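Reviewers asked in the last cycle whether our approach scales beyond single polypeptides. To address this, we selected a multi-component target totalling 224 residues and predicted its structure end to end. The input consisted of the following lines:
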Amino acid sequence: GQNIDQPTEMTATEGAIVQINCTYQTSGFNGLFWYQQHAGEAPTFLSYNVLDGLEEKGRFSSFLSRSKGYSYLLLKELQMKDSASYLCAVRRGQAGTALIFGKGTTLSVSS
Amino acid sequence: ETGVTQTPRHLVMGMTNKKSLKCEQHLGHNAMYWYKQSAKKPLELMFVYNFKEQTENNSVPSRFSPECPNSSHLFLHLHTLQPEDSALYLCASSQDLLSGTQYFGPGTRLLVL
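The resulting structure, written as structure tokens, was:
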């Protein structure tokens, strides 16, 4: 079956670094996405990994290990505005298939 | 702004009403999607359209009826809904099905009484 796991909640303080993990078991794989969703708003695209390794984009980095079915999103120099839900999603790559999402990790950043 | 707009943003309807949700994308994308987001649950894919043709129906009840008149517009027609259908309905688009990032609209918050 399809399964994507990520922690439900995390807390951190301003200026810190936080790592949000995601493990997946899917039939087929054609990329892993991370989205940020603030309460009451649309998910917004953060990063995309299809090959193993680290993708860095400013304060955010995302890592993928396909053999382990594992990814993480790394947020550096945390700011209050980073308080949001972070969604991990896998594209299976079969024709006509869209994204499969995890339940999301709610990150709370405090001062 | 992601280039994907949805109307209305909020909707309250009774179980006997008929209403429609509208999605429009200004990105020149060819694929469009409807997702349902309920509290404490993952985003659930409902329908997928590619070049106006429906390519996926994720076992959605017939009280939800999608329509895609062209690649820029997507509708979700609602009739005789149940209270458990109350959720955030999100539209998304991507350049095509197998590649490209999906960009989401702001969603319609639906409450069924």
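Chain A is about 0% helix and 55% strand. We regard this as preliminary and will revisit it once experimental data from Aim 1 are available.
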